[in-house]
Every structure is written in C-alpha cells, then in structure tokens.
C-alpha cells in the first residue's frame, strides 16, 4: 500500500479499523448493515428505526424546502432552532439557557462530539475518560485530537461503573470525562451516585464533562437526568444531543451542544471549519419536533419499552441471557449458552444460522478489554413489532 501521511491512520487505529495489511475497514455498523442487505437477514444491528417519525416534523421539512429554505443557515443554527433547544432544556430539565450564546447547532451529535473534543484537547498529555464499551466515534475522535483514551469498564449484567474504577481513571491529566447516558451499546442509565461522582471528580481535577444524551427521551424507568442539572456541573459541562433518535430522523443529522457560552464558543470555533453549517430545511423541522406536546414524548418511550420487552422475551426464549436496558435502542444479550466464544465470529455467522444481524460488543471495546465482552451481542429494538417478532421466531428456530 502507498504510504499516506496524516491523521487518518491514528483515527482509524483509534477506532480499531485498520486491517493487518494497513487497509481501513468500514465501521461495524456499515459492515453489519451491508451483511444484512447481502443475506436478506433482519437487521437488528445498526441502530436506526424502520418507520417514519412524527408527520408534523416531516411536513415541516417539506414546507421549508418548498419555501426556499435551501441556502446556508447561520453558523450557530437558525434562531428558531436555537430557541427551541433552549425551550426544550427548560421544559424538560429546568435549565435556563440563552439561546443566542449557550446553544450551537451541529451536523448531528457526531460532529458535536468531534468539534467538542478537538476544541478542548491541547495535546498528547491530555486524557479523555470514557466508559467502555463505548460508541465507536469516541475513540476515533480522541485519537484524531491526539489525546489518550482512558477507559472505565462497564460490566455485565447491569453495566454500572465501579466508583473506585472511576476514581482511578480521573486525574490531573484528565481534560474531559465523556459520558453517554442513556448508554450505547449497553442500554444502561447511570445511577445517581455515578453521576454525582463524575461531577465531584471533574471539580477536583478541573476537567470538563461532555455528555452524549442522544437517547434522552428513550428511557424506560422515569425521567432522564442530565448531568448539567447537578449542583456545580453547569459551568464545566457541555451537553450534546440530536434529533435523530427522538424523531426517527437519523439521516437528517441535526444535533446540538448546550452549555456555558465560553465553552460553546470554543466548540463553534472548530465546528465552523468542519461543516460550517448543515441541514437548513431540517433545522426548522427539528424545532417543530422539540415543541411537540408531552404526549408525543411519552408515546415514543412507551412504544420502545414495549419493543424492548418483546425483544428481551424473544432473546430469552432463544437461549440468550439478557441484560434489561433502562434506556436507548439497544439490548445486550449473552450468547454463551448458544455456544458463542467469540462475539465477532458469532455475529458474522448469525445471518446464515438464524437470518438475523446483530453487533458484537467487542466492536465497542479496546483490544485489551475485548475478552470481557467475548460472548456479548447487541440487538436493536427500534424496529417494527412484526419485525421483532419475526426475528424472535427465527432465533428460537435456530437454537
Ligand atoms: N448509532 C447507531 C448505532 O449505534 C449507528 C450509527 C452509525 O452507523 N454510525 O447502531
């Protein structure tokens, strides 16, 4: 292979995507969706819904396009969406934001995460603490930014971090603690004492807390609690979310960062040279979604809870042990009783064996820690009920 200098290698290596021959592999989600398309298997791998979201939101985007909202929006986002995000944070969490200063619209949570970490990280001495298993872009972006990834393990079956592990991971080199709650891939919602300890440690070591709350409305046991609402947290917390999961518009890529104006401005400084702006016609549509009534928000959590229960029961009936998630699209199951010893091999064989695609948990872990997740598999519940039922019966038949 030709030698190509640059940060690509560090980034791909950070995400574990460089093959033995130096080639770059696609992300696990792209790979598994391609496998589903190739084999005709049911795709419970990549987390995207197979139904459209609220018609008001879809209609608002059509309207915007029809009315010429097709050119660059302002760099921070359209004022109406900045206001809608601020109203949302007040309505659900009691946070008072200045829409003109404390909110920034991004190209999905993915760009928000990248711009935030690139903005905050100063060099190779900086450490970013993440909870492992972690969403794949975290390690890639930390590597791109040239910092060191420090992981805190989440362990089967409840996936709550051990507080001593957490205390050991955070130190004076910690630039940021990156918290994904509700958590992908495990579906865990962090306990109050975990959230409190994160804030205490960030204060003690003068670290920034970055939260990824894209599943904030997909929680099954009660209201979501953003870390930014905890005493002492606001001044050092950047909160990230997006409209993809809440409104079933994962392809629109409208996300946002909220927090104290100086931190948000630092993110803006980087973001404006990544995408500059995106999704002019989708921004008013997401603003419409954020203003939908409480009934909508209750309904999406209720519907996903029903799907979680259906998927969990199907997996148990098919011989898996199941960790019941408290939020997110995902359920983690242990395939040990089905003979799995290597989750990655198990998932590559599953389409042939059962006509179902899932994601190995090892894809969310650093190489040194993969043994711990070697029999664990992530299934997505964000599919139509009949699709989940069909997947359950295929898995049961394949035992
Ligand atoms: N967030 C989705 C998942 O975890 C996939 C997003 C992606 O393909 N990058 O499955």
> Any idea what the radius of gyration is?
20 Å
Please report the distance between the alpha carbons of the first and last residues.
43 Å
Assembly type of the chains comes to: single chain
Query: What is the architecture of the largest domain at the second tier of CATH?
Result: 3-Layer(aba) Sandwich
Q: How are the strands of the largest sheet arranged?
A: 2-8-7-6-5-3-4
How would you sum up the major sheet?
A: 7 strands, mixed
Order of helices and strands: HHEHHEHEHEHEHEEEHHHEEHEEEH
The CATH topology of the largest domain comes to Aspartate Aminotransferase, domain 2
Extended strand count: 13
What is the CATH homology-level superfamily of the largest domain? Type I PLP-dependent aspartate aminotransferase-like (Major domain)
Helix content, binned percent: 25-40%
Which word captures the global form?
globular
> How many structural units, i.e. domains?
2
Task: Describe the secondary-structure layout.
Layout: H1 8-14, H2 28-39, E1 42-43, H3 55-66, H4 79-93, E2 103-107, H5 108-120, E3 127-132, H6 136-144, E4 148-153, H7 163-169, E5 174-180, H8 192-204, E6 208-212, E7 237-242, E8 254-258, H9 261-271, H10 282-290, H11 294-317, E9 321-323, E10 330-334, H12 343-354, E11 356-357, E12 359-360, E13 376-380, H13 385-397
Parallel strand pairs: 1-11, 3-4, 3-5, 5-6, 6-7
Antiparallel strand pairs: 2-8, 7-8, 9-10, 10-13, 12-13
Helix pairs in contact: 1-6, 3-10, 4-10, 5-6, 5-9, 11-13
The site of glutamine has 5 residues, from loops.
């Amino acid at each position: 292979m030709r030698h190509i200098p640059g940060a690509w290698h560090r980034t791909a290596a950070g995400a574990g995507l460089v093959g033995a021959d130096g080639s770059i592999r696609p992300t696990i989600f792209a790979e598994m969706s391609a496998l589903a398309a190739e084999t005709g298997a049911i795709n419970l791998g990549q987390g995207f819904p197979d139904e459209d979201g609220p018609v008001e939101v879809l209609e608002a985007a059509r309207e915007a396009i029809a009315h010429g909202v097709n050119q660059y929006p302002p760099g921070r986002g359209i004022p109406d969406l900045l206001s809608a995000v601020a109203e949302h944070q007040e309505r659900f969490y009691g946070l008072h934001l200045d829409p003109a200063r404390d909110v920034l619209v991004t190209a999905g949570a993915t760009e928000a995460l990248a711009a935030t970490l690139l903005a905050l990280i100063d060099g190779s001495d900086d450490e970013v603490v993440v909870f492992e298993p972690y969403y794949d872009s975290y390690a890639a972006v930390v590597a791109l930014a040239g910092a060191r990834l420090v992981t805190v393990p989440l362990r089967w079956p409840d996936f709550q971090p051990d507080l001593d592990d957490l205390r050991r991971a955070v130190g004076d080199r910690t630039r940021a603690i990156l918290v994904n709650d509700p958590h992908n891939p495990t579906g865990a919602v962090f306990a109050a004492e975990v959230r409190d300890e994160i804030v205490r440690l960030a204060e003690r070591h003068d670290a920034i807390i970055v939260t990824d709350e894209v599943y904030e409305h997909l929680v099954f046991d009660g209201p979501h609690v953003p870390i930014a609402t905890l005493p002492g947290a606001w001044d050092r917390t950047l909160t990230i979310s997006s409209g993809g999961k809440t409104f079933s518009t994962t392809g629109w890529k409208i996300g946002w960062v909220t927090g104290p104006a100086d931190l948000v401005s630092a993110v803006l400084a980087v973001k404006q040279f990544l995408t500059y702006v995106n999704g002019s016609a989708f921004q008013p549509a997401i603003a419409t979604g954020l203003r939908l009534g409480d009934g909508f928000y209750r309904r999406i959590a209720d519907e996903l809870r029903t799907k979680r229960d259906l998927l969990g029961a199907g997996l148990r009936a098919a011989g898996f042990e199941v960790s019941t998630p408290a939020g997110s699209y995902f359920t983690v199951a242990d395939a040990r009783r089905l003979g799995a010893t290597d989750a990655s091999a198990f998932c590559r064989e599953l389409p042939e064996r059962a006509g179902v695609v899932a994601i190995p948990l090892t894809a969310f872990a650093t190489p040194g820690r993969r043994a711990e997740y070697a029999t664990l598999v992530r299934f997505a519940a964000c599919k139509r009920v009949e699709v989940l039922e069909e997947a359950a019966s295929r898995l049961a038949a394949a035992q």
